[in-house]
Specification:
heterodimer; A: 344 residues; alpha/beta; Rossmann fold; seven-stranded mixed sheet; B: 325 residues; two-stranded antiparallel ribbon; 11 helices; 43% helix; oxidoreductase activity (chain A); THDP-binding (chain A); Transketo_C/PFOR_II (chain A); thiamine pyrophosphate (chain A); Alpha-ketoacid dehydrogenase subunit beta (chain A)
Chain lengths: 344, 325
């Protein structure tokens, strides 16, 4: 199969969806700049022109409401936040209205088929307000679907799925994955929403991971295999609805669970997965569940602080070793080189 | 553009009278404590809803806020659907999921109301954008109270509508109070909300919101201008809420002191319903017998709708998750 970058896959998913559905349009700050949101909207602009891909003022809350108002009239808007953190400004419209629309009006006011794309920043000193990862607060509210593609195939497939769904869908994309390459179907094949992916099969321990942490988990799993440890990596792909069946099946198979997430552990996705394991697979667990998430402080800027803030493949590998009662191996050299070039 | 013909005047009077009687009787029933939903009654503010909604066409869409009964009804929402919603029944317009502040009558062009200030102002702009993109000559109407002009989303929306010359009619119902806070703590002295809209290059007019004929005239002009591509219009309609912010009582009944009895009496003397009726009578456009017949019809409609609502079934708890994505 041909390979694409994650960014090119996002773009292709959107373009193919727009070819089939004239109701789709893309808006948000900078979507029609030549840089095209890191190369994800420029092709759509080229193909469909400024009537379907157009810039917007800095007004995250109203823009979200405008998307709702267009969606209920039959359009299918895509709005883009180049950084997650700006979405806080849109929470009233997104959570108080879009998420509740279908339920709160008894199904009589139609549905809100809109897609919100938001990019998670990481590294290069992005800092406290350009690197947050909002899956936990978003997924907390019934009515939103929250997707986190971790590979190019799902970047395309989940984009296609979101653009066929009648509910409001948030896609959290990870900036550090934009350059990741991988096989991607040429045909417009949606990735099913609510279905996790076994990214690597294993026997000794299950790592449930989301987004960029899937890549870190796979790197750790490869090193652990050299040490004779067989790790299964579950890429959740969808935060809400969460595919608890796939997660529980894996836990029952391995008996051990480590959860790793791009955000904080407290009240987060990793807490939710740990709770699911405790409630529904307690008998299968051979030891305590372990969570690995970012440090419990705002994201710092300075390089050594940033390095201490984010868990990486080596952090995961060490944790797995500890969970299995092993101590000897050194995992210092396993982390991927950070080749991200600034500023953004 | 239609003129303010005798037929239009008669229609406008019947509309404000109907809204008044419905809200008064629903408020009376509300005292029985069987409508378990915070209700913001619109007694005193009928002329804004009637004047604007009677100026609209079938394609136009209406959005409203927490004090939404008048807009829902004036746009054609069914009274039985409102009453059943207040009683939490399955035949409520939102099947008992929305309550007083979350109404919908989509088929009649009343898309929704919602309780958060300014929320639907942006949504109306989005529907206007959809009209524009699809080449549909519709107008989106956003009703909101003057306190929404204190919310950021209002300015974001106004700005966007102005930049894109969207077909939106912004209808500000200025009833002088936000819950119990007077304008003096919310606006610098000398503020005119029309100036704020004008600063965004939006055509703005202030009208007597208790004069249904004046509201209709202003709305008719505005809608024609918007529909012909003239861009959004902001109407500030000066009016007054007679009852407490939320609930069925007069402030003095509830022991509230943020407004004086004299101020209320001043506004009751400017009652939009009586004003319209006296004008019809003075102009010889209606007879006493007709007024009585209209009144009887409205009372009968309310009797029937309330009976229907009370007979409606409760939602089944087994359907708690209905319409969850």
């Amino acid at each position: 199969m041909r390979e694409l970058t994650y960014a090119a896959a996002l773009s292709e998913g959107c373009v193919q969806a727009m070819e089939r559905d004239p109701a789709i349009f893309v808006t948000g700050i900078a979507v029609d700049y030549p840089s095209g949101i890191f190369g994800t909207t420029d092709e759509a602009l080229k193909r469909f022109g400024p009537s379907r891909v157009f810039d917007a003022p800095a007004m995250e809350n109203a823009l979200t409401g405008i998307a709702i108002g267009a969606a209920v009239m039959g359009k299918r808007p895509v709005i883009v936040h180049p950084r997650n953190d700006f979405m806080f400004l849109a929470f009233d419209q997104l959570i108080n209205l879009a998420a509740k629309w279908r339920y709160m009006y008894g199904g009589r006011a139609g549905t809100v088929p809109m897609v919100v794309r938001a990019v998670i920043g990481k590294g290069w000193g992005q800092g406290a307000t350009h690197s947050q990862s909002l899956q936990a607060p978003l997924a907390h509210f019934p009515g939103l679907k929250v997707l986190m593609p971790a590979c190019p195939q799902d970047a395309k497939g989940l984009t296609l799925a979101a653009l066929q769904d009648d509910s409001p869908v948030v896609i959290l994309e990870h900036r550090s994955l934009y350059g990741l390459t991988g096989p991607v179907d040429e045909a417009p094949l949606p990735t099913p929403i609510g279905k996790a992916r076994i990214a690597r099969e294993g026997r000794d321990l299950t790592i449930v991971a989301a987004s960029a942490m899937v890549v870190e988990a796979l790197r750790a799993a490869e090193e652990l295999a050299r040490e004779g440890v067989s790790v299964e990596v579950v890429d959740v792909r969808t935060i809400r609805p969460l595919d608890t069946d796939t997660i529980l099946t894996s836990i029952r198979k391995t008996g051990r669970l480590l959860v790793t997430d791009t955000s904080w552990a407290f009240c987060g996705l990793s807490a939710e997965v740990a709770a699911v394991a405790s409630e529904k697979a307690f008998d299968a667990l051979k030891g305590p569940v372990r969570r690995l998430a970012v440090a419990d402080c705002p994201a710092p800027v300075s390089e050594p602080l940033e390095a201490a803030f984010y868990p990486r493949a080596s952090t995961i590998a060490r944790a797995v070793f500890a969970m299995l009662g092993k101590t000897s191996a050194a995992f210092d050299g396993i982390d991927a080189e950070d080749n991200f070039k600034g500023p953004y | 553009m239609d003129a303010l013909t005798p037929d239009v005047k008669r229609r406008l009077y019947r509309s404000v009278f109907r809204l008044r009687r419905i809200e008064e009787r629903l408020a009376d029933l509300y005292r029985e404590q069987t409508m378990r939903t915070p209700a913001h009654f619109g007694v005193g503010q009928e002329a804004v809803a009637s004047g604007v909604c009677e100026a609209l066409g079938a394609r136009d869409v209406v959005y409203s806020h927490h004090r939404c009964h008048n807009h829902y009804l004036a746009r054609g929402g069914k009274l039985a659907g409102l009453a059943a919603e207040l009683y939490g029944r399955i035949d409520g317009c939102a099947r008992g999921r929305g309550g007083s502040v979350h109404l919908t009558a989509r088929d009649q062009g009343f898309i929704v109301s919602s309780a958060i200030l300014g929320q639907t102002v942006a949504v109306a702009c989005g529907s206007a954008l959809a009209f524009r993109m699809d080449g549909v000559p519709g107008v989106a109407v956003s009703f909101f109270g003057e306190a929404t002009c204190e919310e950021g989303v209002f300015y974001e929306s106004l700005n966007y509508a102005a930049i894109n010359r969207l077909p939106v009619l912004f209808v500000c119902e200025n009833n002088l109070y936000s819950t119990e806070s007077p304008l003096s703590v919310r606006q610098p002295a000398g503020t005119a909300l029309t100036d704020r809209a004008a600063a965004f290059k939006v055509e703005a007019h202030q009208v007597d919101g208790n004069d249904v004929f004046e509201v209709w005239n202003a709305a008719r002009h505005a809608v024609d201008s918007i529909r012909s591509g003239g861009g959004p219009v902001f109407l500030e309609c000066m009016t007054y809420r007679w009852l407490e912010h939320v609930g069925p009582k007069f402030d003095h009944e509830a022991g509230r002191s943020y407004r004086s009895r004299e101020e209320l009496d001043h506004w009751i003397a400017r009652c939009p319903v009586r004003h319209a009726r006296e004008r019809l009578l003075a102009e010889g456009l209606v007879s006493k017998a007709e007024l009585d017949a209209w009144s009887d019809a409205v009372e009968q409609e309310i009797d029937d709708a309330v009976a229907t609502a009370r007979d409606s079934a409760w939602p089944d708890a087994a359907d708690l998750f209905e319409n969850v994505h």
